[in-house]
């Protein structure tokens, strides 16, 4: 099982993956989605849905730096220390927000619901942003959220792959 440091190094080395996926998603959705549902608007501000999804992929990958599958551990992980160090009080609030999630999986690290390729990503994405569904009921938000889910899934795939295939621990 790789350490948090190894996971962080692999996350940094894989930064090209979300950029490539974002460009592919933009190209694919700009051709297909444009014919059905080209723009999302809030008031007079309209944005291409393909662009929203692509930006969401990049934001989701960045979110994957701190919202990792290892949040299922009931304790402070390397990622949580990083959050506290870099964000101070906000990092502490982040850690406290994720404590119930860790308690839910207490003693079941790498359980299907916390370390599977897409189900656990969906669970963490909903846990991260459930409250925003009540605040922002716009279509634009849901399209951005879909892109963020894809980016978080890329980050999670790298993490889960490392858990099962990376033998070195540092």
Q: Can you walk me through this structure?
A:
There is one protein chain. The protein is mainly alpha-helical and 170 residues long. The protein has one domain. It is 67% helix and 5% strand. A two-stranded antiparallel sheet has the order 1-2. α4 (78-87) runs antiparallel to α5. The longest helix is centred in the C-terminal third of the chain and has 27 residues, at 139-165. The mean pLDDT is 80.
What descriptors fit this protein?
mainly alpha; 5% strand; 170 residues; globular; two-stranded antiparallel sheet
Secondary-structure blueprint:
Layout: H1 4-13, H2 16-36, E1 39-42, E2 45-48, H3 49-63, H4 78-87, H5 89-104, H6 119-129, H7 132-135, H8 139-165
Antiparallel strand pairs: 1-2
Helix pairs in contact: 2-3, 3-8, 4-5
Give a short synopsis of this structure:
This protein has helices at 4-13, 16-36, 49-63, 78-87, 89-104, 119-129, 132-135, 139-165; strands at residues 39-42, 45-48. With 170 residues, the protein is mainly alpha-helical.
Indicate the multimeric state: single chain
Indicate the low-confidence ranges by residue numbers: none
Q: What separation lies between the terminal Cα atoms?
A: 10 Å
**How does the helix and strand content classify structurally?**
mainly alpha
């Amino acid at each position: 099982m790789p350490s948090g440091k190894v996971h962080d190094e692999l996350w940094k080395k894989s930064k090209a993956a979300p950029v490539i996926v974002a460009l592919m998603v933009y190209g694919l959705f700009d051709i297909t989605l444009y014919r059905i549902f080209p723009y999302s608007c809030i008031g007079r501000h309209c944005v291409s849905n393909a662009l929203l999804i692509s930006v969401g992929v990049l934001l989701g990958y960045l979110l994957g730096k701190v919202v990792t599958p290892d949040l299922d551990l009931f304790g402070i992980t390397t990622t949580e220390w990083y959050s506290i160090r870099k964000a101070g009080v906000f990092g502490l609030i982040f850690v406290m927000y994720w404590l119930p999630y860790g308690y839910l999986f207490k003693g079941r690290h790498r359980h299907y619901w916390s370390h599977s390729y897409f189900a656990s990503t969906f669970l963490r994405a909903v846990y991260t942003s459930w409250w925003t569904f009540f605040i922002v009921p716009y279509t634009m938000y849901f399209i951005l959220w879909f892109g963020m889910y894809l980016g978080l899934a890329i980050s999670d795939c790298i993490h889960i792959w490392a858990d099962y295939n990376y033998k070195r621990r540092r």
